[in-house]
Task: inverse folding
């Protein structure tokens, strides 16, 4: 563990003023909740929530071979990524596991913005620098420059539209544009980690306060609430979005993690490709599945998963899902136990509790 | 905020004595720290517990916390309503959100607990 002092985002004072309960997270001091986690979760599903996710890291990769460099390091097809679009991707280890999961924005033909998990920024940058030689490309850490605000929920468009210089309602899912928000030049992206419609706003650090204040003020009549890390976690889990360090890491392959949709074998060579191709040919031995507890007990990260008293896996994430009011979780199970409906047990404080594999995502928003 | 009719453990439980029976609950401070409570695991009736032994758990959305017996004794009654409505611990921790009732095996255990003023001081320090 490093013992460096915890970092604060440009919005720290506002979190304290809003009554945020500050906790340490990945080297940062961030609000886990303000009024209450369940309230914040429901506000995002029904109206809107505003999250400070400035702890996320940003890196820019630019140059004539920036695209080739990223193709080499990641499993998704960066060549197919159009200017003005972002995609979800994996920074792969040679074993086809996750060095990190990330978003890549194509700013220009030869300019890309990478968004990295806070806990992995240093590790990712070191890994990428180690692989940079031979490519005509530059890598720059821009984490200090950017604050990141996530405005999420069905009312997000209504709240953001009047504050943005350019129309944001037309942005497609995973599309982005540069526009001023409350007078601050920002990168506005139709992305999120909640399963709702919404935006992520990349704002220069010194402008974050004015954008935050303008959104809070504009959102007041639309049910907008500031939301903390607690709701962020329960929202992403209902939407079955993986959390690095829980559900995926450098021991889980992209195929095991049920993320084969970002593994593009046809794009050609990339780090981890051989291992993934071999696993695909031989059969994936275990898979990340969604499950639901039958009773009232809640499964938690690290709890054992058993069949007939034999441990067959571990829970990677588990919670009471506030919107669904179900006790849900994710676990890696041997492939023969992954069919929907398969019963098993989760060991909660020594006692087995019945659970079964269910369809995912647990929650899918109505897009009509 | 901290009722003076009862005594308190450093694990943030309150103990209210009436007719030689101790009613046990978790404090307002504890429920506020935990956040939205979504699951309460109660002890078995007639379970014999020693002071500081784990008698159950209480879970918020984010975290699992153990509940420790603030005194030694035998469980007489548990608050079954909490199984269906765990949020009562948030809304009324000092009243309807009580956790269990137990015998008092050793009255000296009560003396070892804090009074309201001492407990309030503890919460200000944490």
Result:
């Amino acid at each position: 563990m490093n013992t460096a002092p915890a970092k604060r985002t440009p919005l720290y004072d506002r979190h304290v003023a809003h009554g945020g309960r500050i906790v340490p997270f990945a080297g940062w001091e961030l609000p886990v909740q303000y009024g209450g986690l369940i309230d914040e979760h429901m506000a995002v599903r029904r109206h809107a929530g505003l999250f400070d996710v400035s702890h996320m890291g940003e890196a820019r990769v630019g140059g004539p071979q920036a695209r080739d460099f990223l193709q080499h390091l990641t499993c998704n097809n960066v060549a197919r990524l159009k200017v003005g679009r972002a995609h979800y991707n994996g920074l792969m280890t040679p074993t086809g596991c996750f060095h990190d999961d990330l978003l890549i924005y194509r700013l220009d033909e030869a300019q890309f913005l990478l968004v990295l998990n806070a806990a992995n920024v240093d590790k990712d940058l070191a890994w990428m620098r180690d692989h940079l030689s031979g490519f005509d490309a530059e890598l720059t850490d821009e984490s200090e420059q950017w604050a990141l605000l996530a405005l999420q929920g069905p009312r997000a468009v209504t709240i953001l539209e009047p504050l943005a210089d350019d129309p944001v309602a037309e942005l497609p899912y995973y599309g982005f544009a540069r526009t001023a928000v409350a007078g601050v030049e920002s990168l506005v992206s139709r992305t999120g980690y909640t399963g709702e419609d919404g935006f992520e706003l990349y704002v220069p650090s010194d402008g974050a306060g004015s954008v935050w204040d303008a959104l809070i003020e504009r959102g007041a009549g639309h049910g907008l609430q500031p939301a903390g890390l607690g709701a962020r976690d329960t929202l992403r889990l209902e939407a079955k979005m993986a959390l690095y360090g829980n559900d995926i890491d450098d021991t889980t392959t992209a195929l095991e993690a049920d993320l084969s949709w970002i593994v593009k074998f046809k794009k050609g060579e990339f780090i981890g490709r051989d291992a993934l191709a071999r696993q695909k040919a031989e059969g994936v031995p275990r898979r990340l599945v969604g499950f639901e507890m039958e009773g009232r007990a809640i499964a938690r990260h690290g709890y054992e998963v058993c069949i007939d008293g034999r441990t067959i896996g571990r829970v990677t994430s588990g919670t009471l899902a506030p919107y669904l009011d179900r006790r849900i979780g994710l676990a890696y199970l041997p492939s023969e136990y992954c069919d929907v409906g398969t019963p098993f047990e989760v060991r909660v404080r020594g006692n087995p509790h019945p659970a079964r594999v269910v369809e995912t995502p647990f929650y899918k928003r109505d897009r009509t | 905020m901290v009722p003076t009719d009862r005594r308190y453990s450093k694990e943030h439980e309150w103990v209210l004595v009436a007719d030689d029976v101790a009613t046990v609950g978790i404090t307002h401070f504890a429920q506020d720290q935990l956040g939205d409570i979504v699951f309460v695991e109660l002890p078995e009736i007639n379970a014999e517990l020693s002071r500081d032994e784990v008698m159950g758990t209480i879970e918020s959305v984010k975290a699992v916390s153990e509940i420790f017996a603030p005194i030694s004794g035998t469980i007489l009654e548990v608050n079954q309503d909490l199984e269906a409505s765990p949020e009562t611990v948030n809304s009324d921790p000092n009243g309807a959100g009580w956790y269990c009732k137990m015998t008092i095996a050793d009255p000296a255990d009560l003396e070892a607990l804090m009074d309201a003023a001492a407990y309030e001081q503890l919460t200000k320090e944490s």
Chain A has a mean pLDDT of 97. Chain A touches chain B at residues 21, 32-33, 36-38, 230, 233-234, 296-298, 300, 319-320, 322, 349 (CB under 8 Å). The two ends of chain A are 47 Å apart (CA to CA). The longest helix of chain A spans residues 208-219.
